[in-house]
Amino acid sequence: MSIHGLYVAPGEGKRLVSAAHEVVFKVTGEHSTAASSFEVLVPPGFDVGAHLHHHSEELFYLVAGELEFLAFEPVSWEGHWSQWRSEEGRTVITAGPGSVVFVPPGCPHAFRNASDAPAKMFFQASPPPDHEHYFEGLIEIFRTGAAVDPAAVAALRRKYDIEQISELRYQPPGE
């Protein structure tokens, strides 16, 4: 048996879709022991909430649109994470196309789409497959069509190495 690479063409991959959210699995634990890779459409008004992973690391590459990112331990956990500052003076950044954000295990982080247009990112999480299972569960929560159930999201996060600091929020513009 020969060793070969994996090619995933544009538009290919396992696609998970809800009304406004889309995640496409590009590389999974079936293909790699190092990382899972995804293409993620982040709708306007989506705020993943501040959280951290004890064992996972993540890499975000913004393909299109803008996202606000937090990736540091704040001096104070008060108020919305977009207003937090680190001891060294770091603040939340607004990332545009071509930006990369890397988050090591244990680092508090968050992102949100505060714009009125969708953002697209390439997202990689290591090790697999926890984020694959998390995305499957999260899209199911979004498919209910009702407001996001904070208790359901919190339970899902506990199951997959996600320590929730602030709640995930989704408020589409105009609602």
From TrEMBL:
Domain Cupin type-1: 32-133
Cross-referenced Gene3D superfamilies: Jelly Rolls
Pfam family, one: Cupin_1
Taxonomic superkingdom: Bacteria
Protein name per UniProt: Cupin type-1 domain-containing protein
Organism: Nocardia cerradoensis
Lineage of the species this protein comes from: Bacteria, Bacillati, Actinomycetota, Actinomycetes, Mycobacteriales
